[in-house]
Amino acid sequence: MKFVDEATIDISAGHGGAGCVSFRREKFIPFGGPNGGDGGRGGSVWAVADRNINTLIDYRYARRHDAKNGEPGRGSDQFGAASPDIELRMPVGSMISDFETGELLVELLEHGQREILAKGGDGGFGNMHFKTSTNRSPRQKTPGWPGEAKKLKLELRVLADVGLLGMPNAGKSTLISAISNARPKIADYPFTTLHPNLGVVRVGPERSFVVADIPGLIEGASEGAGLGHQFLRHLQRTRLLLHIVDAAPFDESVDPVVQARAIVAELKKYDPALHAKPRWLVFNKLDMVPEDQREARVKDYVRRLRYKGPVFSISALARDGLQPLVERIWHQVAEHQRPEPEPDARFDTAVAADGK
Predict the structure, then answer these.
(1) Is 60 a member of any domain?
(2) Residue in 220, 166, 233, 219 with CA at minimum distance from that of residue 193
(3) Beta strands 149-156; 6-12: pairing state
(4) What is the pLDDT of residues 93-141, one digit of tens each?
(5) Both 252 and 152 in a single domain?
(6) Are residues 144 and 168 in the same domain?
(7) Which are the contacts of 205, defined by CB distance < 8 A and separation ≥ 6?
(8) Looking at the structure, do residues 178 and 291 belong to the same domain, yes or no?
(9) For residues 245 and 165, what is the distance between their CA atoms, to the nearest angstrom?
(10) What confidence score (pLDDT) does residue 146 get?
(11) Pair 158, 196: CB distance under 8 Å
(12) Which one of 60, 64, 123, 130 is CB 3.0 to 4.6 Å from 39, fit for a cystine?
């Protein structure tokens, strides 16, 4: 199924039914009085969070959603029937904004959460509503109130505790498949991942966290290079970012340090708040580096990046070094409050003192 994380829809609630002017007319009851009923309420439009849905594709093709109008009132004291509401089921993590103003209206964060998007109009009053001791045969009625109509922008941001960040082919998909039951597409060419993947990592009984893998970033993503910034929104709700660095690139002319700085620069251009999140360095593909050179290579990369935070050396393919990483992540995520990053636990885009 195609992954869609943005859509625009038009919704309109139903109008209320009009009131009725009617009088009771029966044999031997010449002055029966008014008996025109009120109109029924128009249907409302609701948004419902559903954890069984993971994409907005239904709203990419079905863009108009209209609730029905309420029935008009009738004689013999009959009120019009109210129209049923309609529910729009959306993935957990959906954000609903006004298309014209950009104002955030609703954020669906829990399964079963139900929020009103457009309220149906109330029904009009029939003439029995205007009966008084001095006005015994009223001929007034009111039309139904109109329902709300809106144009909405839908945006999906997946709910995950940990986000994987890195260049294409850094091994993010291999890592998420090694530590969770997620089975993303894995191949030996860039941009294998074309949409976000979620995986649940189970550390032990009642100990688990959710990891999000997004398509790789490259330098110039802010100008649309590669897949651009379009999937970075899915990392905005994470508590921790794992920056996956390819420690053994196929092309010897490629410098992992330069690539790492380029990704951080793109992250900062997109959202300073996302750039400020705790970010750990994970050097992957260490199985492709001679064992006697691994420690020195990692230390050299860390020195040039001037990074002082947690560093992990792993091989996702060989399943080497994953258990300490998973345990450390779980202890970080288990803290309920989102930790603030330490100033020295991040590296910026500045060139190191050695000029590399």
Answers:
(1) yes
(2) 166
(3) antiparallel
(4) 889 999 999 899 999 988 999 999 999 999 999 988 888 888 888 989 9
(5) no
(6) no
(7) none
(8) yes
(9) 9
(10) 94
(11) yes
(12) 123
Q: Does position 326 have pLDDT exceeding 50, yes or no?
A: yes
Same domain, 240 and 218: yes
pLDDT digits (tens, 9 = 90+) for 74-102: 988 889 999 999 999 998 888 999 999 98
Is the domain of 104 the same as that of 172? no
Q: Which tokens hold the place of 259?
A: 């690539």
Q: 10 near 239, Cβ under 8 Å?
A: no
Domain with 26 in it: what CATH number?
2.70.210.12
Q: What is the CATH number of the domain that holds 241?
A: 3.40.50.300
pLDDT at residue 228 is higher than 90: no
Are 146 and 226 contained in the same domain? no
Tokens, residue 114: 């139900």
Distances (CA, A) of 113 to 64, 84, 93, 149, 160: 22, 19, 11, 22, 18
Q: Which of 340, 328, 312, 316 is nearest to 209 (CA)?
A: 328
Q: Report the number of distinct structural domains present in the chain.
A: 2
**Statement to judge: residues 184 and 332 lie in one domain:** yes
Closest residue by Cα to residue 131 from 120, 140, 122: 140
Last residue of a domain, one of 125, 156, 187: 156
Residue 318 near residue 348, CB atoms below 8 Å: no
What's the rounded Cα separation, in Å, for the pair 19 and 79? Answer: 8
- The values of phi and psi at residue 60, to 5°, are -75, -30
Look up the domain containing 119 and give its range.
Answer: 6-156
Here the tokens at position 322 are 């994953």
The helix (H) or strand (E) run that includes residue 9 is: strand 6-12
What gap in Å lies between CA 50 and CA 32, rounded to an integer? 53
Residues paired with 98 in a beta bridge: 152
Q: Tokens for 97? A: 């904004």
Sign of CA dihedral 226, 228, 230, 234: positive
Question: Which of the listed residues 156, 171, 187 is the one where a domain comes to its end?
Answer: 156
